[in-house]
Write a structure and sequence with these properties.
Number of domains: 1
Radius of gyration: 17 Å
Distance between the termini: 53 Å
Structural class: mainly alpha
Shape: globular
Largest sheet: 2 strands, antiparallel
Oligomer: single chain
Length: 196
């Protein structure tokens, strides 16, 4: 097995090795178990970020890439594309590796999408990943299919007010200081068609 993996990675370019070394341990493990799917998964991950960035600039969704509709879109799109290209099980395990990476990011107090990750964000991502894994669509129709699902409330977002403050499920503003350093907090998941 090790010889097989080494021979698989011997064809890596120097830049591929540099990218691999930058990965978190959960993602490195995923790559080791999926060496032939890793390059395609990396390309699709970049594609999902590009498409989500375009959607963020449009009036189609709320423009919120950190817990809002654009964040939900990115995860659903990513998983739907991965399912089509590398298979459902490999896609799901990569999504789980990404969330394990987010927990490591939280422990190191690093930022993901401009905020320190937390459990509710991870729960949201995992839910939206599963929605994406359930979508069978051509690449051409995928963007609008996911946007329609978001407008129907089929995905999850984190409850916020019009000013971007996180809210409890009862609608109270959560003071930002009370969120610092907490994996588990009072943020609330709501349907993706939630209106402030």
């Amino acid at each position: 097995m090790i010889v097989f993996l080494l021979s698989s990675f011997s064809s890596f370019s120097q830049s591929n090795w540099q990218q691999f070394k930058k990965l978190s341990s959960p993602k490195k493990t995923w790559v080791l178990f999926h060496p032939f799917k890793a390059k395609r998964a990396f390309e699709i991950s970049k594609e999902a970020n590009r498409v989500a960035d375009s959607i963020k600039k449009s009036p189609l969704l709320d423009g919120d890439a950190a817990g809002g509709q654009v964040d939900a879109f990115r995860h659903a799109y990513w998983m739907a594309r991965l399912r089509k290209e590398i298979g459902k099980n490999a896609a799901r395990s990569l999504g789980k590796a990404h969330e394990k990476e987010n927990y490591q990011t939280y422990k190191e107090r690093k930022l993901e999408d401009g905020v320190v990750p937390d459990k509710i964000s991870s729960d949201m991502d995992l839910f939206n990943n599963e929605v994406g894994l359930s979508i069978s669509s051509t690449k051409k129709g995928l963007v609008y299919k996911i946007i329609n699902l978001i407008h129907k409330g089929k995905l999850k977002v984190i409850k916020k007010d019009a000013n971007g403050n996180f809210l409890t499920c009862d609608g109270f503003i959560i003071p930002p200081d009370s969120l610092k350093g907490k994996w588990v907090n009072n943020k609330c998941l709501v349907h993706s068609n939630y209106k402030q």
